[in-house]
Design a protein that fits this description.
This protein is α/β, with parallel strands linked by helices. The chain is about 30% helix and about 15% strand.
C-alpha cells in the first residue's frame, strides 16, 4: 500500500509504503465512539461535591421537644428537609468516572480513523516538517505553500484544521507551529483517536507512521 510523498513545499518527491494494519482498516463507528467517550470520561475530574447531613454545621441539639408543641417532630436541623440541611443523593467527589480502555481496541480505533481519512484524501505525507527558526510567520507561510501546491487551500485555516505529526520532538518546529489557531502539532507516538478525529487534515512526516502504535 503506497501513498504520495511530498516535500515541505508540496511537491511530490516519491511514494511512501504504508502498513495495512494502520491505513487499511475498515470503518467501525461503534468502536470509535466507545473509545472517544471513554477518553472524554477519563478526563472528567469528578469535583462536584455536595454536603450530606453529616457534613453541614449545626444540628447538635434537638430543635424542640418530641411531643406537646403541636409541631412535627424533628431530631436535627441538619435534616435534608430543613433549609441549610444536608443534601440527599447529591454528587460526591468520591465517585470515579474513569473507564478502562483495552489497548488493542484503542489502537484499532485509531487505525480505523486514519484509514478512513486516508481513503477520503485527508492524510498527507511529507519528507520533514523541521523549521530551523521558531517563527510563527514562517510556519504559516510553509503550511500555506504546502496546501496550495497539493490542492488544499484551506489547510491550516478556518475549515481546514490540521494535525501535524512528527516522528520525534523538535523544539524549534513545535514553537513555530503552536501559536497557529487551526494547527495542532504532536509527536506521532502520542496521538489518540480523539485528536485524530478533530482536524480535517492530518500531515505526517515520512517516518512518523512507524511511531504510531496501532
Amino acid at each position: 500500500m503506497k501513498a504520495p510523498l511530498y516535500s515541505k513545499e508540496g511537491k511530490q518527491v516519491g511514494d511512501v509504503t504504508l502498513s495495512e494494519s494502520l491505513f487499511g482498516v475498515r470503518w467501525n463507528s461503534k468502536m470509535v465512539q466507545e473509545v472517544v467517550v471513554a477518553l472524554q470520561t477519563n478526563r472528567r475530574a469528578g469535583t462536584a461535591h455536595t454536603k450530606d447531613r453529616g457534613d453541614v454545621r449545626g444540628g447538635g441539639k434537638k430543635p424542640w421537644q418530641q411531643k406537646g408543641t403541636g409541631r412535627a417532630r424533628h431530631g436535627s436541623s441538619r435534616s435534608p428537609i430543613w433549609i441549610g440541611g444536608g443534601v440527599t443523593h447529591g454528587p460526591t467527589s468520591e465517585k470515579n468516572y474513569s473507564k478502562k480502555i483495552n489497548k488493542v481496541v484503542k489502537r484499532k480505533a485509531l487505525a480505523t480513523v486514519l484509514s478512513k481519512k486516508l481513503k477520503e484524501g485527508e492524510v498527507y505525507f511529507v519528507e520533514d516538517l523541521v523549521m530551523p527558526n521558531p517563527k510563527t510567520k514562517e510556519a504559516f507561510t510553509s503550511v500555506e505553500l504546502f496546501g496550495k501546491n497539493v490542492g488544499i487551500e484551506k489547510l491550516g485555516k478556518k475549515g481546514g484544521r490540521a494535525l501535524l505529526l512528527l516522528e520525534k520532538p523538535h523544539p524549534e518546529t513545535i514553537r513555530a507551529f503552536r501559536n497557529l489557531p487551526y494547527i495542532t502539532i504532536e509527536e506521532a507516538r502520542n496521538v489518540n483517536v480523539e485528536e485524530a478525529l478533530i482536524p480535517k487534515y492530518i500531515v505526517l512526516t515520512k517516518n512518523a507512521a512507524d511511531s504510531i502504535k496501532a
